[in-house]
Amino acid sequence: MGLAASAALVRVGLPGAFAARVDKTAEFLANGEFNWFPERSPSGPVVVIVSIPDQVVHVYRNGIRIAASTCSTGKAGHETPTGVFKILEKDKDHKSSTYNDAPMPNMNRLTWSGVALHAGNLPGYPASHGCVRLPMGFSALLFSITKVGMTVVIADEDSQPSSVVHPGMVLGDYGKKAFGAVDASIKRHEYSEGRTEKATTTSIVVSGRDRSLTLWENGRITATGKVDIANPKKPIGSHLYTLTGVDENNAQLTWTSMAYSSKDRASDTEALQRIKAYPDILKKVQKAMRQGMTLVTTDDSSNSGNRSADNFTIFSGVGLY
């Protein structure tokens, strides 16, 4: 789908509402416009970030932004929840069971309570009942690269991912022996990708307050354990990391990182280096490591009923953190 000299307009939603694919950067998109540059990073783990203040959706692959689009999030009284979510379900021709079978094309479900990414009318301001409405053309392109279990971040501030290179194994011994175990696990999972009926999605949540680690696989907790945190009085910060690369020559892992809260923010690299998992949980984490997995750090409690001060949730719909 090459870009024309003047972008074609695509009707979506109510009469008079248009969407246009344009050759502009995210910062200069007008309402209804989007860009799409997949060639900038042809492969690798995908993370979608929704900025509520900017009403813009950013798509990153291997830490490189390949697309951006204007959007419409929840209106007053139906605010879109902020948090780290996993795509629970995909349906190209979905219809709402709550709002009179209203069409929700290219739907990526984030919560079972009804929050999703889908095509819809974009009036230029928050107007939905909680979902993230997208231009039709953009929603179709996004639907083509999303996967169940993929990470979507809905943030109430402007957050830009950065690259973090970490020596050896994260959350433990940083020697080459530990890296070898992780590397073998990643290769094993890569080999099985596409050869099994359903790929496993993996996430790790580290709580600074509880000094705990929770391992999630396919939306359920499969292991818990303790961690030591160097300089424990200092916050580890609120970060989301996605494993994007493995450098066998230098025994390093590459992560795409973003801070999802300005509260008690620590540097991305420092937070990883201060966390060390106990041996029993570390072995389970090593076996679960794979490309595209996510690691979330937080200074809040790991109590299952906990929400942070700004109502930021993690994995809502597959279990509330």
UniProtKB/TrEMBL annotation:
The active site is at H118, C131. It comes from the Bacteria. Pfam families: YkuD. GO terms for molecular function: peptidoglycan L,D-transpeptidase activity; transferase activity. Keywords: Cell shape, Cell wall biogenesis/degradation, Peptidoglycan synthesis, Transferase. GO terms for biological process: cell wall organization; peptidoglycan-protein cross-linking; regulation of cell shape. Pathway: Cell wall biogenesis; peptidoglycan biosynthesis. The keyword ATP-binding does not apply. This is L,D-transpeptidase. The lineage of its organism: Bacteria, Pseudomonadati, Pseudomonadota, Alphaproteobacteria, Hyphomicrobiales.
